[in-house]
User: Which sequence fits this backbone?
């Protein structure tokens, strides 16, 4: 396409002054010396539809109207230079014949496809109007009041800032992967897309509203595509409302340098949770809407009407709501690099489905905040409190879950609810992880779970346990290559503790990002292993066994006090350095022998003891039920060769 160079001078002015009409297949560029309808019409330049042209404006130019005779006509790439250089240097470029220049919607679309508009060569160019087709070439101006695009944006739209009163508004039917909206220095009032947004957005300042809606044909307003190239929404300042109808795909990253006020998916169809979030959301924090809420809606924080399989991450206290109406998938993460606070709009996390992923709270679960999982036995993943172990965060708020019967249960610390007792006493609660759904809530550094460990802590077991599995409230790993667990043995009646670590192997994960919560201990080949009528205790050697997914990867704790004092102290100064009594830092069990089976006391295990058991059953394996399993333990001993 040949580019036409047009220089405005006295001769050209005289030639075209009377040429106010234009024909089909022509684009008319009308130049005025003022902003209003009373302005003097300087000249009209006629350009073939689709033809590129470079136009040097006279110094008196204040307004340029670009008009077409037919909306089937394309507008070629137009470049504007010249114009005023002193005093009021603003030149308003209006698509169409109007003079309106604010955030109000343009009334008439102009032309079909547009192949570009470059007015950055003017001292101060301001843009307003509506295109009838696609934007296929770059639009580069100093400022945008409002630009509507009735089809897709397939090129760059760039401006350095708002016109007045934070006017930088863009409406479009979609953004392709080649599309890009960019504000290099200023704020953006609103970007609204009716269709798919598959291109990048970069705002140097604040972005007050970003809305991605379904179009008139019902096509969902997705962000990103299932198989497209990665896209980013970068906001250099604060963000207000971000409302999305459709899916946020896993190739999408939201990165907000400042704070955000509200993020929601499934906006126009709130009863149907089919708008999952698969991408990444990162923000400095979520206190308030920076530029006010134009619709006076309540601030809802982060709300996903669907599944969360991506990540949500904020760097400051979360004191607004986080709601996921679907599941948090195994790949899903909620990361709060501070406290979960409850002083503003509630400060809570609510998951309506299954929590299969990871929730990390670097600091404290504040007493006025809470986490709630509504699905029955819905906690299958991991929640970590004090995930940055250097800040000494503690578990002060309540975690709600539903047990196997669907009854709502509460896990909460005793120092804020003096009625709280085991098995629901946080942080060393004794509820089985299977009752939660298989997952766990752990306050780092993680303690061992007294009831879920095999054998149960402080139990007497028979026959000899193979293997031993110590369960923790959070994921653990070991990279040391040397024994990280000390194992001691003594006769149950009398005797002194002796170190027998060398007889056993300990198996653990080796990744600091693992989600596995247990270690396994087995006897080494040709070693004696565990003995009948002996007691065993386990403690940490050095700092070999560490907490995974925790900043600093602190060493795990072995603490068997039931009141939780070894994990959380009443004195804030002692939170990170709890004290242990002489017998509080061990996981323990005993292995029984014939003495535990000798119910009639005659020092012999035989049919007489069976008769005693039948008369009064005994729970040998301490599984809270005296049944045929226990009877078989006795019978196996009697009949063993």
Assistant:
């Amino acid at each position: 396409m040949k580019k036409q160079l047009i220089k405005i001078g006295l001769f050209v002015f005289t030639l075209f002054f009377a040429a106010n009409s234009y024909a089909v297949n022509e684009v008319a560029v009308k130049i005025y010396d003022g902003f209003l309808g009373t302005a003097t019409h300087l000249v009209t330049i006629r350009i073939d539809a689709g033809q590129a042209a470079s136009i040097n404006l006279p110094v008196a130019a204040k307004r340029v109207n670009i008009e077409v005779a037919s909306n089937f006509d394309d507008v070629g790439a137009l470049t504007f230079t010249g114009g005023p250089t002193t005093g009021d240097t603003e030149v308003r470029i209006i698509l169409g014949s109007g003079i309106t220049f604010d955030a109000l919607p343009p009334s008439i679309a102009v032309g079909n496809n547009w192949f570009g508009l470059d007015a950055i060569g003017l001292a101060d160019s301001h843009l307003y109007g509506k295109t009838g087709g696609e934007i296929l070439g770059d639009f580069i101006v100093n400022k945008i009041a409002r630009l509507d695009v009735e089809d897709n944006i397939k090129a760059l739209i760039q401006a350095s800032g708002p016109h007045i009163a934070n006017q930088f508004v863009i409406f479009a039917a979609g953004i392709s992967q080649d599309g890009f909206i960019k504000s290099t220095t200023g704020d953006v009032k609103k970007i609204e897309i009716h269709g798919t947004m598959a291109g990048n957005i970069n705002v140097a300042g604040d972005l007050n509203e970003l809305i991605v809606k379904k179009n008139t044909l019902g096509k969902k307003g997705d962000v990103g595509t299932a198989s497209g190239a990665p896209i980013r929404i970068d906001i250099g300042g604060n963000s207000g409302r971000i409302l999305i109808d459709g899916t946020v795909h896993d190739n999408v990253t939201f990165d907000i340098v400042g704070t955000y006020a509200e993020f929601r998916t499934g906006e126009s169809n709130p009863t149907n949770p089919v708008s999952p979030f698969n991408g990444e959301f990162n923000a400095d924090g979520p206190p308030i809407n920076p530029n006010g809420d134009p619709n006076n809606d309540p601030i809802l924080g982060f709300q996903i009407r669907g599944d969360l399989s991506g990540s949500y991450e904020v760097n400051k206290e979360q004191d607004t709501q986080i709601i996921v109406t679907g599941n948090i998938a195994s790949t899903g993460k909620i990361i709060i690099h501070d406290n979960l606070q409850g002083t503003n709009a509630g400060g809570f996390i609510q998951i309506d489905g299954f929590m299969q992923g990871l929730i990390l709270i670097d600091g404290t679960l504040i007493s006025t905040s809470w986490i709630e999982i509504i699905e029955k036995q819905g906690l299958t993943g991991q929640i970590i409190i004090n995930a940055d172990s250097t800040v000494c965060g503690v578990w002060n708020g309540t975690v709600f879950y539903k047990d196997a019967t669907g009854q709502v249960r509460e896990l909460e610390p005793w120092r804020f609810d003096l009625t709280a007792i085991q098995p629901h006493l946080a942080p060393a609660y004794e509820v089985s992880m299977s009752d939660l759904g298989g997952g766990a809530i752990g306050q780092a550094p993680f303690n061992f779970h007294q009831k879920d460990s095999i054998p149960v802590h402080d139990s007497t077991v028979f026959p000899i346990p193979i293997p031993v599995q110590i369960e923790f409230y959070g994921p653990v790993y070991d990279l040391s290559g040397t024994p990280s667990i000390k194992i001691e043995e003594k006769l149950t009646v009398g005797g002194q503790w002796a170190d027998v670590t060398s007889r056993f192997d300990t198996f653990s994960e080796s990744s600091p990002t693992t989600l596995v919560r247990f270690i396994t201990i087995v006897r080494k080949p040709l070693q004696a292993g565990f003995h009948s009528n002996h007691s065993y205790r386990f403690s940490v050697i050095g700092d070999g066994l560490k907490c995974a997914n925790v900043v600093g990867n602190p060493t795990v704790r072995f603490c068997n006090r039931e009141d939780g004092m070894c994990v959380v102290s009443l004195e804030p100064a002692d939170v990170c350095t709890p004290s242990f009594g002489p017998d509080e830092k061990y996981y323990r069990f005993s292995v029984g022998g014939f003495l535990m089976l000798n119910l009639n006391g005659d020092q012999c295990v035989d049919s007489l003891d069976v008769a005693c058991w039948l008369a009064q059953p005994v729970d040998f394996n301490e599984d809270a039920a005296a049944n045929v399993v226990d009877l078989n333990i006795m019978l196996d001993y009697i009949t063993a060769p």
Residues 379 and 437 are 5 Å apart (CA to CA). The two ends are 99 Å apart (CA to CA).
